[in-house]
Specification:
By secondary structure, the chain is of the alpha/beta class. 42% of the residues lie in helices and 15% in strands. It has a single domain, classed as Alpha/Beta hydrolase fold, catalytic domain (Rossmann fold, 3-Layer(aba) Sandwich), CATH 3.40.50.1820. Bound molecules: 2-acetamido-2-deoxy-beta-D-glucopyranose (3 copies). The site of one 2-acetamido-2-deoxy-beta-D-glucopyranose has 4 residues, from loops.
């Protein structure tokens, strides 16, 4: 689309010209390549959801009786869990013997495919958010893992939006609760009531962005191979741009400059962002504004058609019966403690609510240099209880 391209160029021209000649290197590796780099041989699977989306699932094979699934957050991919190499969660869990599977939801760089729709031509392809990620993508991914391992149940670790989609699944398809031995929710997100107090500009920015994107009928956000995705990554992985992107990242996720290893930053920004839908962000904004963990609000008429009520209904948290361990960071500005505490109270089967002290922020769960000390031992401990 010409106008989309023009708009993107207008926004990013000042920064691309000096950078575009440096093509990112690490960013060219897929999960399999990254795994090899860190001494692991990965397998890849394509699986089709009931509504026709083709997802790419990765696996670092291990003990088949210990299947473990990792679900990533918004705008990212399975790669989040391995780009820290030997210090990453995926490698740590694999070294501990687990059969590590990694999901990729519809719409990111790996799962931008459908049996009939073309993501570049069919706007309908992009009508998805946490609801579809949970109801279809996570359900299908769990079935794939269980089919391939011959196990009845797996352990699940979700990060950020990966926790929200697990709540959607547990509430909407309660039979899946029995397929999950234990769910470890990292930087958990369900209600988003207090985030706005930590980040007052978020709502305004979000709404402005949605209005702008709607105006130009833009459905995909920061697609990995789209102009905006490539430019953002080029800008953020070098020199001045890198410093700026690092600041923004720390501002949004919580200030912990020591968590991120300096040398790691360029590499990080070769992989991030990797694409999602506008609808995904819009649903987040609705949950934030309404202070309700509710289904997507289509407006009264379509709501009535879809849900039988003019108001989009709440997800029924009481149906989420799986064993849950919540792990929150004291300094997390996206999953703030007030919100995760509320989850701990409202979810019916929370076994433990654990807070990582001091400066631990939203992104530290994935990339902090302290994870090896403050996070991984805890995760391994919990998993060990549910072998
Ligand atoms: C990662 O650990 C493996 C096994 O311990 C080692 O062989 C490899 O050199 C390490 N890689 C890096 C990049 O540190
Ligand atoms: C997708 O878009 C193409 C081209 O506009 C159109 O011919 C096709 O019918 C659309 N498919 C679906 C499933 O909407
Ligand atoms: C898992 O196996 C069942 C039964 O054979 C099959 O119906 C289903 O399609 C499989 N699902 C996946 C995602 O592989």
């Amino acid at each position: 689309m010409l106008y989309k391209t023009l708009i993107t160029i207008l926004i990013f021209t000042p920064v691309i010209l000096s950078h575009i000649k440096h093509a990112p290197r690490d960013g060219k590796l897929t999960f399999t390549g990254l795994a090899l780099k860190y001494g692991k041989v990965a397998e890849e699977y394509d699986v089709t959801t009931k509504d026709g989306y083709i997802l790419k699932i990765y696996r670092i094979p291990g003990d088949k009786t210990k299947p473990l699934l990792l679900m990533h957050g918004i705008l990212t991919t399975s790669d989040d869990f391995i780009i820290r190499g030997n210090d990453s969660l995926a490698v740590t869990l694999s070294n501990a013997g687990y059969d590590v599977w990694l999901g990729n939801y519809r719409g990111n760089r790996y799962s931008r495919r459908h049996i009939t729709m073309d993501p570049d031509k069919n706007a309908t392809f992009w009508k998805f958010g946490p609801h579809e990620h949970g109801y279809y993508d996570l359900a299908t991914t769990i079935d794939l893992v269980l089919n391939n391992t011959g196990e009845d149940r797996l352990s699940l670790i979700g990060y950020s939006e990966g926790t929200m989609i697990t709540y959607v699944l547990g509430a909407e398809r309660p039979e899946y609760n029995d397929k999950i031995k234990v769910f470890i929710a990292l930087a958990p997100i369900c209600h988003i009531n207090k985030m706005i107090e930590a980040l007052p500009f978020v709502a305004k920015l979000g709404y402005d962005m949605i209005r702008f994107l709607k105006l130009f009928k833009i459905e995909e956000l920061f697609g990995f191979d789209s102009l905006s995705g490539i430019m953002t990554r080029n800008m953020c992985s070098q020199s001045v741009g890198l410093q700026m992107c690092r600041r923004i990242l720390l501002l949004v996720s919580g200030y912990d400059p020591d968590g991120l290893v300096k040398e790691f930053m360029p590499l990080l920004f070769e992989h991030y962002p990797a694409g999602t839908s506008m609808t995904n962000v819009e649903h987040f904004m609705q949950i934030l504004t309404s202070k309700r963990f509710a289904k997507f609000d289509y407006g009264p008429v379509k709501n009535f058609e879809k849900y039988g009520s003019k108001i989009a209904p709440d997800y029924n948290l009481n149906k989420i019966t799986m064993n849950i361990y919540l792990i929150a960071g004291r300094n997390d500005r996206l999953s703030v403690l007030a919100d995760s505490r509320l989850q701990a109270k409202e979810l019916p089967n929370v076994k433990e609510y654990f807070v990582i002290e001091k400066k631990f922020n939203h992104i530290d769960f994935l990339w902090s240099r302290q994870s090896r000390q403050v996070l991984y031992p805890k995760v391994l401990d919990i998993l060990d209880k549910y072998r």
